Amino acid sequence: MLEDNHIDDTPEEGDYELDSVTLRPVMAALRAGDEATLRFTLDPLHPADIADLLEQLPTPLRHELVRLYGREFDGEILAELDEGLREDVVSALAPDVLAEAVRDLETDDVVDLIEDLGDPQAEAVLKALDAGDRVAVESSLAYPEESAGRLMQRELVVAPEHWNVGQAIDYLRSEDDLPEQFYHVILVDPRMRPIGYVTLGRIMGSPRKVKLTEIAEESFRTIPALQDEAEVAYAFNQYHLISAPVVDANERLVGVITIDDAMVILDEEHEEDILRLAGVGESRLSDRVIDTTKRRFPWLAVNLVTSILASLVIAQFDAVIAQFVALAVLMPIVASMGGNAGTQSLTVAVRALATKDLTSANVWRVIRREALVGLINGVVFAIVMGVVGVIWFGTPMLGVVIGIAMVINLVIAGLAGVLVPVTLERLDIDPALASGAFVTTVTDVVGFFAFLGLAATMLL
Predict the structure, then answer these.
(1) Fewer Cβ in 10 A, N or C end of the chain?
(2) Domain ranges in the chain?
(3) What 3-state class would DSSP assign to 87?
């Protein structure tokens, strides 16, 4: 597709990925220092694709691309770039190229960029901005991290509440400094407090004499500047918002958040939950080996402790295992089934907590459901494993033992998968961060204790 310099009308899976067709000429041009070929190859690409390309290149070639691409370097590339690489790329840009690149970015993108930079690079970006943009960015940076004030952009379109459609259209046509993209005209009272907004479509489709307040959107709601960005993203998703004005403590308009920024936060929240459930934190492909090792080490250490706890349970039944070697063969099956069932319940519960679908109003219904699911699955697999135990080892009672242990562990796994994250949520601990270790410990300890305890009681 890229080789023919046109867009395929019927994109297939993988069409939006950078492949060797693009990478090979870029890397060849970088190694040869061929600026013309590099620009010819990169110019048709979207800034997001160039950002992906930078992330895939080794550091020396990444710096060479920044140098050769020169003044063609678009600020949108910095906005799309992985957070872990922004500082490296910004430090490689010439000051005049950096100034030109960030000057066309909207304030929210500049704020997002500066948040991930060290002080020297952040200062360089601020100096590259016009005086008005610099004040707006510094004002946004004064708000707490991960708040609506950091997420909002200062470029917006405002109209007095008494205007009609004709006045709004005349203003839009005469104004030279409109945002590059906007969705609503925000209506404000004399104290600059937003009282509604009107979509551009309704403005263009209504007679000139119609009051803007008569065609204002019913979906209007304001976002407090100090509200957590995760709550902002939830509001956009829940109420199908396109944009929303941001207000300060006095309800005065200070900015606007648009759907693209809200969806980025929503995607980051989902990604963060997945990574935390796996115990890898905010991991990126561009991270250094030492950074990745430090991030994963604590959770591996926690897993070691939980494994030792499970081993201590097994040690209490060493005499039973010595008499029935088959128990050692079957133990991993009980633990694995419980662990998988617990992970299933846990994943559903953590996601439901994040989307606010799991609340105090329905938590006991969900707990009962998971317990019943565990019971039914446990009975089914108990029958299967009971038959396997009899055929494999020729001991009917061994089949009964593993069957009962399977039922107990799957029921406990379903309960733990919901109760653990809900309890952590009540204690103001991120359930995605800590639930996995607790659930694994519960299913391992209960599974081993039930299986070996029943074996000691029924087989000796």
Answers:
(1) C
(2) 20-142, 158-260, 289-458
(3) helix
Q: Which 8-state DSSP code applies to residue 144? A: P
pLDDT-derived band at 308, boundaries 50, 70, 90: confident
Residue with tokens 């100090």: 226
Beta strands of 29-175 (E only): which ranges?
A: 158-160
Tell which CATH architecture fits domain 158-260: Roll (3.10)
- The string of pLDDT tens digits covering residues 125-183 is 888 888 888 888 888 888 998 899 999 988 899 999 999 999 999 999 998 888 888 99
Q: Give 450's contacts (C-beta < 8 A, 6+ positions apart).
A: 334, 404, 405, 408, 409
Which residues lie across from 211 on neighbouring strands?
Answer: 164
Among candidates 164, 98, 152, which has minimal Cα distance to 126? 98
Instruction: Let me know the angle formed at the C-alpha of 172 by 166 and 173, rounded to the nearest 5 degrees.
Output: 90
Instruction: Give yes or no for a contact between 412 and 337, defined as CB atoms under 8 angstroms apart.
Output: no
* Helix (H), strand (E), coil (C) string for 4-27: CCCCCCCCCCCCCCCCHHHHHHHH
Instruction: State the Cα–Cα distance between residues 299 and 318, nearest whole angstrom.
Output: 29
Provide φ and ψ at 183, rounded to 5°. -115, -30
What pLDDT band is residue 247 in, cutting at 50, 70 and 90?
Answer: very high
- Amino acid (one-letter) located at 44: P
pLDDT band at residue 5 using 50, 70 and 90 as cut-offs:
very low
The amino acid that residue 105 corresponds to is L
Give the DSSP H or E segment for 255.
strand 253-258
What are the distances in angstroms from CA 365 to CA 128, 344, 362, 415?
A: 57, 17, 5, 12
Location of structure tokens 């979906």: 219
CA distance 399 to 333: 13
**Chain-centroid distance, C-alpha 42:** 28
- Burial of 239: CB neighbours in 10 Å, binned 0-12, 13-18, 19+: exposed
Helix-, strand-, coil-residue percentages of the chain, each rounded to 5: 65, 5, 25
Specify the CATH architecture of the domain 289-458.
Answer: Orthogonal Bundle (1.10)
Residue 75: phi, psi to the nearest 5? -60, -30
Please count the other Cβ atoms lying within 10 Å of the Cβ belonging to residue 205: 11
**Start-to-end C-alpha separation, the chain:** 70
What pLDDT is recorded for position 121? 78
Q: Could you give the C-alpha distances from 408 to 283, 398, 402, in angstroms and in order? A: 36, 16, 10
Q: How far apart are CA 168 and CA 206, in angstroms?
A: 11
**CA gap 327, 448 in Å, rounded:** 10
> 315 by DSSP, 3-state: which?
helix
CATH, range 20-142:
1.25.60.10
